Amino acid sequence: MAPRDDSDDRQAILARRAIFVTTALAALGCSSQGGQGTPTSTVATSTSTVIATAQTTATSTSSGSASVATSSPSSTPDAAGRLASWEKARAAAPPLDVAASLPAREKPELEQVKSEMTRIYDALGKVWQAAPVHCSPKDPKCSAAWQQAATALGDLKDDMRGPLCGWRLGLGAVERTIAHHGFAGTLISALEAELAAAAEKHGAKADWETMRSGAVKPTPCLKCAPPELGAVTEHRYGGAPLMVPFADGKVTLDGADAALDALVKRMGETKEAVFEVRGHADPAESGDKKSLAKKRAEAVRDALVKKGADKSRLLVVVYADDLPIGSLASDEGRAKNRRVDFEAIAKK
């Protein structure tokens, strides 16, 4: 009988240990890749669509042909094809431009989000284009490249953790951050799926899983006070911003009771603040965007008053189509732009 090679056993043990640590942290209220404020529901809404698109184009050649990366990883490096697939995937990102007509107090933070996300996309693009799917993690000539990919993806996930103690940003910056973290997360998932399929094809699935496990960075458990002012989110420690959605071209509320009740409750918890009721429109909607956004904000304000909110603490603010947060390339993205959202600000 041939001598037993126990390297796979060791790798499996390490992988199980990483899973155990992650599970234990989750039980303590922590996460290996997200804080208390990580908006996982927001990320999940478009994951399948973006991953499907990214995987379909991940091994596109310079001639334009494509194959599904997770079922047929390329056997040789294809720089032109990987660059083309990255550019196609990246093109579906939410907007980052900062409109000149936005309030001055919001511009610095939005510019900061733009700069930070540009850095993250640039880093992810480099990993995407250099993904060593053409060779095995066990190959001495490729193992370093595989390890670099695992480390880089782990670092990017760490960069995009949600806040542990609530958002310390204005609402526009919070919405843009969440939208882009969600989108970048789907691209990372697509690339990890492609790398896992390539590793399995090369008979080195356990090697890749060991590299990935080693790149996981646990989040510390902290006790802290949430911010009183700023973006009104699903809960005090973060989560996705509270908002009321609208149908294309419409100003009537439909199924908004949960969001309105949550806002009334937050007003009761935050006595020393007024609340902006911010109306938005999608750039693709027809008609006067400013009028449309204003009517939406007024409709929400009036509905809040009917639920007992103090009208003197509700300030209608009109953004028109100056602050889109969803990709203009899809119906799902454009729907996110048709909204009314809320921000608590200090009384003047």
Relative strand content: 5-15%
Low-confidence stretches: 1-75
The number of E-state strands comes to: 7
What is the residue-averaged pLDDT? 81
The main sheet comes to:
5 strands, mixed
Elements, N to C (H/E): HHHHHHHHEEEEHEHEHE
How are the elements arranged and paired?
Layout: H1 7-27, H2 40-44, H3 47-57, H4 79-90, H5 107-130, H6 143-159, H7 171-201, H8 205-214, E1 230-231, E2 233-235, E3 238-241, E4 243-245, H9 257-269, E5 274-280, H10 289-306, E6 314-320, H11 331-337, E7 339-345
Parallel strand pairs: 5-6
Antiparallel strand pairs: 1-7, 2-3, 4-7, 5-7
Helix pairs in contact: 1-8, 3-4, 3-7, 4-5, 5-6, 5-7, 6-8, 7-8
What does this structure look like?
The chain is an alpha+beta fold. It folds into two domains: 7-214, no CATH class; 242-345, 60s Ribosomal Protein L30, Chain: A. It has eleven helices and seven strands. It has helices at residues 7-27, 40-44, 47-57, 79-90, 107-130, 143-159, 171-201, 205-214, 257-269, 289-306, 331-337; strands at residues 230-231, 233-235, 238-241, 243-245, 274-280, 314-320, 339-345. Strands 1, 4, 5, 6 and 7 form a five-stranded mixed beta sheet that branches. Strands 2-3 form a two-stranded antiparallel sheet. A hairpin with a 2-residue loop joins strand 2 (233-235) and strand 3. Helix 5 (107-130) runs parallel beside helix 7 and helix 7 packs antiparallel against helix 8. The radius of gyration is 23 Å and the shape is elongated.
